């Protein structure tokens, strides 16, 4: 009978993020090369021979065009990895690279691997959101039979959440302004210095282009709503329509990577683990509300870990829209001082496939800076799903 092995996190890196539109700081970089830079940095920073890596797992949502044909494999080859190292690409929507971390930890715990490099990439400037649909609907006849009124886009789901939990426009905008202020302060204090790497093809990209340090709730109040149409207003007459570009995450370019190993292998190679994977969960949830999954995912992972929300020192809850972490905090009774303390995706961007390992790097750096022990990250995902992960700083 095999013994379950401990999976540890040795390192996490990410690129700065760029605006995900033409002219953004990273829009001139091919997404394969963007991901390759993060993968190569993991090897270089840790003096690791790529031939020792058992697998490379990369998250990417829009797997079409320049992000097609298994971008994980293309990026590993572009990063100079030994040709014998396999790689694959994962799509669990916004949680794709967080799912890569989960798969890596599971393979290591099972004894099927001892070193896995994970990460994610999304170039939303070069492969626009929705490109993978190719102009057709994913609603098949059987799916329409189950949901005859149809499902909705994530912005409408964010509106439904704001309505159900009673978050008015002022609350959403105040949360969003705080995200920018926290992120700007974290950059000013050098909190990301050990995580953010240079991009060889874009040397002028030295910080997160999506942060607006002067953002205020009053300034956001003047922005128009993003998702209201006459047809949707007729379908959802209760909605007040309060989700805007200012209280949503922006289109973003970026890549990230992490080195996950067995504790034994790390010791053999003389590498210092920074944290251990303590517990994981993944859940499905209502695909109409869609973005509420982090609530049951967090409850599941806390139960699995034998912890309460008060035992956690920080939580990174992806800010796809302001209503998502606000609803999560309300349901879990979470301390908002611990919620995305260095800002979230509203300020730091949401390069879809990259966001899971980006959150991991921020969470780990925060625990190390503050001396905290346990941290949680959770991510709402298209189709009504969520991953949750608890790490323990070592």
TrEMBL record:
<dbReference type="GO" id="GO:0016747">
    <property type="term" value="F:acyltransferase activity, transferring groups other than amino-acyl groups"/>
</dbReference>
<feature type="active site" description="Proton acceptor">
    <location>
        <position position="350"/>
    </location>
</feature>
<dbReference type="InterPro" id="IPR020616">
    <property type="entry name" value="Thiolase_N"/>
</dbReference>
<comment type="similarity">
    <text>Belongs to the thiolase-like superfamily. Thiolase family.</text>
</comment>
<feature type="active site" description="Proton acceptor">
    <location>
        <position position="380"/>
    </location>
</feature>
<keyword id="KW-0808">Transferase</keyword>
<dbReference type="InterPro" id="IPR016039">
    <property type="entry name" value="Thiolase-like"/>
</dbReference>
<protein>
    <submittedName>
        <fullName>Acetyl-CoA acyltransferase</fullName>
    </submittedName>
</protein>
<feature type="domain" description="Thiolase C-terminal">
    <location>
        <begin position="272"/>
        <end position="393"/>
    </location>
</feature>
<dbReference type="InterPro" id="IPR002155">
    <property type="entry name" value="Thiolase"/>
</dbReference>
<keyword id="KW-0012">Acyltransferase</keyword>
<feature type="active site" description="Acyl-thioester intermediate">
    <location>
        <position position="94"/>
    </location>
</feature>
<dbReference type="Pfam" id="PF00108">
    <property type="entry name" value="Thiolase_N"/>
</dbReference>
<feature type="domain" description="Thiolase N-terminal">
    <location>
        <begin position="8"/>
        <end position="263"/>
    </location>
</feature>
<dbReference type="InterPro" id="IPR020617">
    <property type="entry name" value="Thiolase_C"/>
</dbReference>
<dbReference type="Pfam" id="PF02803">
    <property type="entry name" value="Thiolase_C"/>
</dbReference>
